[in-house]
Amino acid sequence: MKFKIQELTDYSMKFVITDTTPSFVNTMRRVLVAEVPKMAIEDVEFHLGPIRDNAGKEYQSVSPLFDEIIAHRLGLIPIPSDLKLFNSRETCKCKGEGCPNCTIMYNLNKKGPCTVYSGDLEPLGDSKFSIKEDLIPLVKLDKDQALLIYATAQLGNGKMHVKWQPTSGVGYKYYPQIEIDNKLFKNTDDLMDKCVEICPKNILEIKAKKLVTRDNVEDCIMCNSCIEVCAAHKKFISDKSAELPLTIKGDDTKFIFTFETDTSMTAKEAFAYTLKFLEGKFNNFREQVSKLK
Ligand SMILES: [Zn+2]
């Protein structure tokens, strides 16, 4: 099995994986979606009653939205998640009570009129836990309205709730294989032109009176438009053959895999966790099987 990374940014990744099977790449997809842990806000405490600013002005602790909606929105904010630093609450030494090894605490203190953004959440303690995606709007406060909130984040994964899913757009496609038999084209250009024109991804071109693929074959979405055009214009195809000049197949041993993360961790960290998780699962499976003898 071989990986070739084609695009890597802080929060997205695209790679080609060869000598593998559909079930293995799907396993990777499922681990990226459901097993990679991240921190997310789980408990939110709203201050009730009047809130005073430094000048002594009094605000009502109300907002146009129900507290439940604000708590839900807070839960979905991507919290920086260094997986080396945190344990899940269940396995932490504090036995689930909450401590710096399994919990990040945040404070939000805003007075209207203003829009409250994700970046207004301030970590209590280390500033490295400040929200990176800081312009997610949460709620608009009117004049005399204020919010004072304490929120705690803890570790979870996508199986528990989607707010603990650090990845999005996780998907793969079979590597496109386009074969062109130029001998089957009769009267050359007409049908070739049609094939070039109909391709939505501009993969085909005519070179030296032959239809060939350009170097962006990977963009092929296997829409089969070129094949349909050939089937609809059979008069341009050599009479001797019932075959069409183009065939498009997906290679089931080679895949193009893409995913993004929500800024709670880098794409590299999420992928490294995935490979380590799979290694653990397969080792465990091997041990269980060997015990059967
Ligand atoms: Zn703890």
Main sheet record: 4 strands, antiparallel
Name of the CATH first level of the largest domain: Mainly Beta
Q: Which hetero compounds are present in the coordinates?
A: zinc ion
Major beta sheet, strand line-up: 1-2-14-11
Please state the CA-atom Rg, rounded to the nearest Å: 27 Å
Number of domains: 3
**Per CATH, which architecture of the largest domain?**
Beta Complex
Query: What's the average pLDDT?
Result: 92
The count of helical stretches stands at 5
CATH topology of the largest domain: RNA Polymerase Alpha Subunit, Chain A, domain 2
Annotation, overall tally of beta strands: 14
Order of helices and strands: EEHEEEHEEEEEEHEEHEH
Q: Give the overall shape, derived from the CA principal axes.
A: elongated
Helix residue percentage: 10-25%
Q: Which structural class do you get from the secondary structure elements? A: alpha+beta
First CA to last CA: what distance?
29 Å
What name goes with the CATH superfamily of the largest domain? DNA-directed RNA polymerase, insert domain
Low-confidence stretches: none
* Strand percent estimate: 25-35%
Labels describing this entry:
3 domains; RNA Polymerase Alpha Subunit, Chain A, domain 2; Alpha-Beta Plaits; four-stranded antiparallel sheet; 293 residues; alpha+beta; 5 helices; binds zinc ion; 14 strands; 33% strand; single chain; Gyrase A, domain 2
